[in-house]
């Protein structure tokens, strides 16, 4: 357990080492950019994994997957991401159109409580917000005189989860994940004169907290001696976010308090009903083809903000994996794997009458230790979000994701799950 404890300690102590500067213009809407990366083995598969099962990797894409883990082992995973984004559009400064960041994104552990019962707990991001831009404001009572508004936003919603799944009849697994959503979205507006001197600043903060449950199912079987087949499904009901909004107005010296109070929340107050379907087909325990479809009913929330409103979102993804195994004492041990994936998403944001799309591909490489449960998964993602038009901004991004998996054999004190 010493290795596991050391890795967890280093991860927790390093969570504050975040160099984030990515500017995500569309994260000003709703609850920001919703995370669709699970930072696990499926990252190189375009995060396709609703039907994926593994005996040593934590597949949080579906809470029903944890019953497939090996018995009497404590598993753990940490994940991080490095990103580079380029922006294109009429309102983008071409001399300064790139941003980058490096962040830790995931910490999770899992184990089998009984032969057919798997459980997992962890902390992952649900959404993030980070933007800054300038906009002119016409002074009321004047003949078109303006001042500058500098907008800056940051924050996000985190998800601390506890998941359980149980296997029935060696072919069916049911799972449920209960999460606690928490975090805040902060927007600071600085009003400036023609010389960009600060006149007054206003900070709006929206804090959200609530419990959230999502459910999963996996049906898996063998087809002949060479084929394995799995179906998966996920579901989550509409959930309140219980937003609490406050405002603080400061004078130009940023210390004198001019006003403070509460506001009617302008952000989302609920998360919508959602579901997902997935399929996985494996041949000779070596070649695996996967497909996922996800849907979220955002339009039922009736959220609008000027020229923006929320629309039902959908995401389709495909993944392909080649696993290399070695025969050790008549047991197949996986040593490495190669992955590729593709995704196409209609996001939940409609701007100026156009639903934003997100399209891209991934490749991944995994290496497993032959002497321990230590494993590494490195994936590269490239995608394009939005459009380059007079009213919209296009983001072209590249992400590198690293996931480290580790495990320790638990002391069973004579108890065996067979």
Could you explain how this protein is built, in words?
- The protein has 418 residues and is an all-beta fold.
- The chain has a single domain (2-409), classed as Outer membrane protein transport protein (OMPP1/FadL/TodX) (Porin, Beta Barrel), CATH 2.40.160.60.
- 3% of the residues lie in helices and 63% in strands.
- The chain contains 1 helix and 22 strands.
- It has one helix at 2-13; strands at 19-20, 33-34, 73-88, 98-114, 117-138, 146-168, 172-192, 198-223, 227-236, 239-240, 244-251, 257-263, 270-271, 274-283, 287-296, 304-305, 308-310, 313-328, 331-351, 354-368, 375-385, 394-409.
- It has a 14-stranded antiparallel barrel with strand order 3-4-5-6-7-8-9-14-15-18-19-20-21-22. A two-stranded antiparallel ribbon has the order 10-13.
- It starts with a helix and ends in a 9-residue tail after the last strand.
